[in-house]
Amino acid sequence: MSTSAIVVMVASIIALWGVAILALVYSMRQEDRKLVLLQEQGDFEPFSPAAQRDIEDWIRRHPEGQDADEMRELLDAQQRSLQRNSRQFYLWPDA
């Protein structure tokens, strides 16, 4: 096996482990933030701003759809959580 092949193989292994470790650390920090919010306030908003927009768009497109009432209930739960809790998990643009 040539030296360049070994170097590429080692670099690939290091890059793979590096990305995996970064993703793991990021995920663990996010879960830690969720746990702190649960311990301090009991809950946090269930949806991200993007998910909320998706649900709102879906309701606009399907106002009388089969699952429209369920989607409205999810949005209501989101709004109640945002009003009840002073700290949010997701970053809200106008918060």
Question: Would you mind describing this structure in some detail?
Answer:
The chain crosses the membrane at residues 6-26. Keywords: Membrane, Transmembrane, Transmembrane helix. Pfam families: DUF8026 (PF26069). It is a single chain. The chain is an all-alpha fold and 95 residues long. It has 2 domains: 1-41; 46-94, no CATH class. 73% of the residues lie in helices and 0% in strands. It is built from 3 helices and no strands. The protein has helices spanning 3-41, 49-61, 68-84. The relative contact order is 0.12. The mean pLDDT is 94.
Helix and strand topology:
Blueprint: H1 3-41, H2 49-61, H3 68-84
Helix pairs in contact: 2-3
Summary?
The protein is mostly helical and 95 residues long. 73% of the residues lie in helices and 0% in strands. The chain is built from 3 helices and no strands.
Oligomer: single chain
**Proportion of helical residues:** over 70%
**What summary fits the major beta sheet?**
none
Distance between the termini: 57 Å
Overall pLDDT: 94
Determine the number of helices (DSSP H or I, runs of at least 4 residues). 3
Comma- or semicolon-separated keywords:
95 residues; mainly alpha; 2 domains; 0% strand; elongated
